[in-house]
Structures are given as C-alpha cells and as structure tokens.
Amino acid sequence: MEEIKNYIDGDWQTSSAEEHLDVTNPATGETLGRVPLSTPGEVDQAAQAAATAFVDWRRTPAVERVQYLFKLKNLLEANFEELSRTITLENGKTLGESRGELRRAIENVEVALGIPTLMQGYISEDIAHGIDEFMIRQPIGVGAAICPFNFPVMIPFWFMPYALACGNTYVVKPSEKVPFTMVKVFELLEEVGFPKGVVNMVNGSKDTVEAILEHPTIRAISFVGSTPVAKHVYAQAAANGKRAQVQGGAKNPIIVMPDADLDMSTRIVADSAFGNAGQRCLAASLAITVGQSSNGFAEAIAAAAAKRVIGSGLDEGVEMGPVITPDSKARIQSLIQEGESEGAKVLVDGRDPKVEGYEKGNFIGPTVLDGVPKEGELFKTEIFGPVLGLMHVDTIEDAIELVNTGNYGNMASLFTSSGAAARQFRYEAEVGNIGINIGVAAPMAFFPFSGWRDSFFGTLHGQGRDAVEFYTQEKVVVERWPKEWTRKF
Ligand code: NAD
Fold first, then answer.
1. Protein residue whose Cα sits closest to atom 19 of ligand 1
2. Is 410's C-beta closer than 6 angstroms to any atom of ligand 1?
3. With 80 as the cut, is the pLDDT of residue 293 above it?
4. Class in CATH terms, 252-436
5. What are the residue ranges of CATH 3.40.309.10 in the chain?
6. What is the pTM of this model?
7. What's the order of all strands across the beta sheet hosting 472-480?
8. What pLDDT score was predicted for residue 248?
9. What average pLDDT does range 343-369 have in this prediction?
10. Is the predicted pLDDT of residue 292 greater than 90, yes or no?
11. Could you tell me the CA-to-CA distances from 343 to 334, 389, 468 in Å, in that order?
C-alpha cells in the first residue's frame, strides 16, 4: 500500500511516525494508501530547513523569485488533468468540480506573480526639514498552512504562492483525508527547482498541528477548517506570539425575494446547495423565501434536488459525488433526522440513496427540508452535506435578521431584481462574502477571501493584497542625510 511521504529540505522522507491513517476513495470505499501522523521531530526538521533556506531566499530579488512561480504555473497547466483526477479520487467531487478548484488555485499563482509591484512600500519626502520617511515590506520568515479536506489544492494556494513570492519559506500540512493531491503538487514544486528547504510538506493531523503551533521558528499560521478547531488554533497561535489568519466553518443563507427570477434562482441555489456534495464553505444551506416568493420556490428547488444525478465523480454525467467519510455520512443523516424531529418537513430525502455499482461509497442524496425552525439544530449547525433547509418570512428585514442571528458569517446571497433591496442587504448583512443573484460568492484570487464572526479569526484574509500584507512585515525608516555631509571629491 502506498505510504505518503513528507517533503523536507528538498527530500522525500518516509515518516518515522508510529501511527498512520488510511486514505480512502469516498466513492468506492477502496483504500488508496496511508498517511503518517508525523512527529514533532519531523515538524522541527521542516521548520529548521525552512529557516535555513530563508536566509538566501529572502535575498533573492522578487523578480527572480517569481520566475519559480511562472514555472509552477506552467507545470500545473501541463498536469491539469492528472491533478484534477487525483482530487476526485481522494475527495469524491466530480471531475468538473476538481477542474474548477484547480483553476482557482492557479489563479492565485498568477496574482502572486505581481509581487514586485504588490509588495512595494511607500515614501514621504520631507516629513520634517531634510528628513524622509518610508515603509518597506519584508518577509516574516517561516510560514505554515494547515488545510481542510474539501479543497485539497485550492486552499493551500490561498496562501503558499504569496508567502513564497514575498520571500518567506514554507511548511504545508495537508488534510490527512486528502494528502495525495499535495504530493503531486510537491512533485511539481520539486521539478520547478525551488532551492531546498524553501517549500516543505509534513503530513499528519491534530498532534502535527500542535507541533506546528508550538514551534518557535514558525512565525505565521494560515488555517482553514471547522470553527471549534479554528478557535483553538487562533488561541494557540496568539499564545505563542504568531500571527494567524484562521478561517472557520459556515452556515450560509440565501434570501429569495418575490421579484427574483424563479428559474434562475432555483438553478443557482441548487448548484450552491448540492455542488461539491454541499462540502463547500460557501454552500447555501438555508434558503429564506420572502413574501410571495414562497409560491413556487419550494416545489421548484425540490424538483431540482430530486433530479440531480449522483455517483462517482469520475463518471460522465454525474452531477454530485459522495461525502468524504462514513462518519460524515452518519452525521449528516442524523442531522436530517433531528431536523425532521424538530418539525421540518422532508420534501426530498437523500438519507440513503442507492448508487448502483458504488454500494460502499459514502453517498447522501440532495435533501430539502421545509419549515426549518429558528430554534432548531438545522438553523444553527453547519451540516457540510447536500442538505438545504427552507424558511419563510414576510419582509426583507426579517430575512436579514435571520442572516444576522446565526454565529457564522461566511457568505449570504440575495436573489432579487431590485437594486434597492440589493443595497439594503449588502449594507446590513453581517457577513464577509456577499452574493447578489450569485449562489457561490467565491472571491477571485485578487480579492480577499473574507469571512466574519465565527467564520474567521484574525485581520488579514487569504488571497490577493491581504495575503501579501499577511506574509510581510512593515518596516518604517526615518532618515536624515544633512546636505553639509555631501562629500567634495
Ligand atoms: P477540520 O477542522 O476537521 O480539519 C482542518 C485541519 O485541522 C486539518 O488539517 C486537521 O488535520 C486539523 N485538525 C483537526 N482536528 C484538530 C484538532 N483537534 N487540533 C488541531 N488540528 C486539528 O476541518 P475539515 O473537516 O477538514 O474541513 C471542513 C471544515 O472546513 C468545515 O467546517 C468548513 O466550513 C471549513 N472550511 C472553511 C472555509 C472557509 O473559507 N471559511 C473553507 C473551506 C473549509
């Protein structure tokens, strides 16, 4: 069985870990390999290698550093199909979804290529007579990314290209559920020819994360995962004096106004709720109809859910793959049950679908529950599966109040043909990513991937200028060079 290796100081190393976890194909239950739960000693080796490499890497001019990223972009393009297939094999999403994810990852490399401009500072002459002041951005040192399972390639790329372009060196801890994709990416990073120690990968789970958080050499942490773990990571990073950008879970509401285009909203909301089998931090999980929009929307979305084709993500024509593990499937089934017990009506029940030829896969079909109570679990708990709860209110004010009631603040969307409603919603929703007639309001690489309240802890987000600020520290210089000191030769 293939054992995942670590990549430390330019070498592929078999971990000395005593514990390993199986990595499985969620569509078939087949074991793909095993991943080591790497030791604190291995985290230390990676951090030390990165610290040593930092000395020269930060002195490499930005225009030279980006040449490595140009090569990486070309290699990612050349290996596009193989990488997409690997994502589908270990994560379960459809091949089309994997391609979309990889495209988003590459876009982050493209934005980071602008680093010679993006990391420029600024200057003021004569802040006092003959005195100038300027700000320069310098890299921090060693950074680390701790990643979730749902986007095996895109999420590390929200951070790593910017960190490297800014002159930092790096350690990636992929999700233990989907480590193969990053192995392929690191093979490409090796082919690019980054100096050894500049990029490192250490596999593992909780204990490996603790070792990263405690390591004194690692100065910056980028984390994406569930909110309970996010809170812990943020607290530990702060306790150990590290800067941290920490993205948590989500519960994303979509409001459908009476003047929304019913066909368009139904199609887009269905894609948002059931795409990636609902395992997207921007997936719609509540649809709130306002006034007369309840007429027809519940029926239309139920019909769209019922006809979605589920199966293995590698098969042609499949629109939705499995969820990641049998545990995930059981958790989602029990939340649907709980919603039903709390009074919601199950319009489409995907608890136990039959997928011919894939009896051992972790499949959950699209599920729609109508009349989700505000006090219930389905309203407040992140399901992270293809389950959409429906609620109904009379006014947009009531709908916005619901949006602002939950703990999360990752994304909310409004479907309407009224600019005034759109503005009111955009202005008042306490949420980091807003969609207007958009189902998955995923920021492009040149915008920050936002998130508020329990969906984000920190100040600077991933992607774009935020990532550049996060992976640099500002140095402010005040200089006096009296004219009288000018040498006469
Ligand atoms: P997770 O929290 O289980 O794991 C995330 C990472 O933390 C993994 O690398 C894992 O090894 C590590 N980890 C797990 N338990 C830990 C612990 N107790 N202590 C220290 N480290 C630990 O998340 P997941 O299931 O892989 O991913 C799904 C979650 O990620 C969902 O909640 C989803 O909303 C969230 N997510 C958020 C965003 C966003 O942009 N806000 C994006 C993608 C995913």
1. 206
2. yes
3. no
4. alpha beta
5. 252-436
6. 0.97
7. 122-128, 131-139, 472-480
8. 98
9. 97
10. no
11. 14, 12, 48
